[in-house]
Amino acid sequence: MQSTLASTTLDSREAGLRRISSTLSLVAQVISLTDKNALSVSHAKNGDPVTSLDREINQIIRDTLPAQNEGWLSEESRDDLVRLQCGRVWVVDPIDGTRELVERIPEWSVSIGLVEEQRVVAGGVLNPCTGEMFLGSAETGLKVLQLVSPGAESEPKNNACILVSRREYGEGKWRSEEEHSVKVTPMGSIAYRLARVAAGYAGATCTFEPRNEWDVAAGVALIHACGGTVQTVSGRPIPFNSRVPRLDTFCAFSRDCSPAVYRTLAAYRRYGQQAS
């Protein structure tokens, strides 16, 4: 019985990841044909930029991905709370890192997470600039695809590196108590940061600011896929598909994260709590 259940779960995850991969591949094709200089840019109430490409990608994913009786939660869609009655919910950020897109920094991404019973079970993150697609679940493991021809040299991995918010870094929140053996690198999209940690390009990522579910759902699934861990600052578990889709601040660690990173983040968390 257990073997049958495990096989059914694996089949379900593989099917979900195929749907994510197919959708992200379609989005990548649309983005490649888009004139980035012709994008219209407006601003949300909090001052964050929103482009016409955010809305276009949102519509493509919504038209392509959810099946009947599957819920939907996205940064660019009105939340009607019907999703709370659904056993499966797609949690989507059409563009995570719109500011980086506008400023031509190649650190923005498209993020798709699949949630079942408040647990994120599969995810995919696409960086259209680099052509990287990260796919994974705890049952299937992590897969990194290169949609464009990779460079001659493979990128080195560094389990003693912490990827942090570009904005938080600019505000000086990561400039105290750094160990010489640990590198702190600012990077735009948190979904992309989580994906890179899952792939082993960095040891950890952390944020002092609360996040929306769509920012991190796919990335958290990738961390689980690689055998890494996610820890909230408060110590509470991370539920998804909540009525109010906001999450506590948290840190995510790769499977092979350097002990020096844990020590540094412990110091930074103390600093962050004092600063807040």
Fraction of helical residues? 25-40%
CATH topology of the largest domain: Fructose-1,6-Bisphosphatase, Chain A, domain 1
CATH architecture name of the largest domain: 2-Layer Sandwich
* Main sheet makeup: 6 strands, mixed
Question: What features would you highlight for this structure?
Answer:
276 residues; D-Maltodextrin-Binding Protein, domain 2; 2 domains; six-stranded mixed beta sheet; five-stranded mixed beta sheet; globular
Detailed description of the structure:
With 276 residues, this protein is of the alpha+beta class. It folds into 2 domains: 2-146, Fructose-1,6-Bisphosphatase, Chain A, domain 1; 161-275, D-Maltodextrin-Binding Protein, domain 2 (3-Layer(aba) Sandwich). Helix content is 34%, strand content 26%. It has 7 helices and 15 strands. The protein has helices at 2-32, 52-64, 98-102, 166-170, 190-198, 213-225, 259-275, and strands spanning 41-43, 49-51, 71-74, 88-96, 109-116, 119-127, 132-137, 141-146, 161-165, 183-187, 204-206, 211-212, 229-232, 246-247, 250-253. The chain has a 6-stranded mixed β-sheet, with helices on both faces. It has a 5-stranded mixed β-sheet with strand order 10-9-11-15-13. Strands 1-2 form a two-stranded antiparallel ribbon. Strand 5 and strand 6 form a beta hairpin. Helix 1 runs antiparallel to helix 2 and helix 5 (190-198) runs parallel beside helix 6 (213-225). The longest helix is centred in the N-terminal third of the chain and has 31 residues, at 2-32. It starts with a helix and ends with a helix. The model is unreliable at 271-276 (pLDDT under 50).
